Queue: 2 jobs
Job 1
Amino acid sequence: MSNSPSAVELLRHSLDIFLAKDMKGWSLLCDDDVIAEFPFAPEGSPRRLEGREALYGYLRNYPSVINVRSIPKLRIYSTDDATVAIAEWSASGEVLTNGNAYEMSYATFVTFKDGLIVNYREYWNPLAFIQAMGGAQF
């Protein structure tokens, strides 16, 4: 029996790091060659990022734009593949650049290898995002 954390535990930990606004720490949870996909990203936002540095570059200023205060809904599921976990979650906070509320629901599919994220795919509502941002792109 392995004492390594499960994919569910690793995904839960990654969300704790995200909520702590530690984008560098979050990126260090990722493999050097991580693939991050945001299939519903609005026009002008990346839909695919390759590599830890690219992902960190995308996320590093996130806490200065959006203050996520809580994750009010969180359900994490294991799958028949021990390296994959799925989360249904929501974030609640404020857009710091305009004072708008930030309320977003996500579905996240994460694959781990050797305890690191190798594939991260996240679905969210681009219309709600654009509305919260006041029409601006992140």
Job 2
Amino acid sequence: MKKVLEVFGEPIATGGQEAFVFNNLQSMDSNKFKFDFLTPYSCDNDGRREDIKHLGGTLYELNCLFLPGKSRELIREPIKGFFKKNKYDVVHIHSGSTSVLAIISEIAKKAGTPKVIVHSHCALEKITLFNKINRRLCGMRMKKSVDVYCACSEEAALAKFCPEILSKVQVIRNGIDLNKYKRNITTRKALRERLNAKDTDLVIGHVGRMTYQKNQEYALSVFRTIHSIRPDSQLWLIGDGPDFETIKSKVGELGLENSVKLLGLIRDTSRYYQAFDAFIFPSRFEGLPISLIEAEAAGLPCAVSDLVSKESDIVGDFVRYIPLDNKRAWVDFFVYEAARFNEKATNQLTKAGFSVRDSAKVLEQIYLS
């Protein structure tokens, strides 16, 4: 049995990298692996604690201060201390920070870990000179310590790894359980009834952590115009995060309290996608967002910022990439094009490699090889 440590380079919360890890581990052969979990910070998601318990693993929280945008060197000594006491066959590091990938991989390899994997799950809004220099310096360090480079998309690889490394990066699809997203009319009707949406109402959905990156304020601005044209429309926002109170205040300012539902953190969102008629995703940057793949799996027409990776377009004309400076096009999409349903979505995503059964097999082979 292989001992595998899944390392999260940020606090364990509700993001895509957490979804990727737990979706895949829960689909792997539990007899082959013993999984533990580490974050230099803390776990802010009780649901993930339950997932770890279910997998029979141990969660290690080092409780370092999380200071986005600041040097990550504060985690070095606590991470060293952890690896002095704990040994693993495989260490798989997930982070949106190139520095974190370099620091932890370096320490893990020096501690004698046979296989060290680094995984990029996020793109950048803009690759600056600082990013390029940091990529180069961290890349030199990772060459000596990393055995396998992974990313959720080519854009996520480009954001975190220097050019010399890119040819070595293995893209692993953000696989999901596609069967959970097949439309069930009974589920759809029951959920819409519970949340006071009629069968004929236009329900636009969004799932994402409430942060600058996800840009929910733009979704509100678009929806305000949609609602003026279609008073029977509703916007359901699923997620929590640092911008939750800001979004809540904005809903009040726009007078949309009766048509916008802030549903907060929901552990299993699959049935909510079945209640949506369309999906809005105005992110400022992304790697390959799992929530968008879930919306596509549910057969929904999706309006997506043109800043999101085009690798996420799996189902053809059901995904429309629209510039954020063309608000009219966003409004028109939902008013005139949202009354559609893609019955072929499951087959399309399976062929494209987005079934969690396929991504879990890929990950399993990397761990065992």
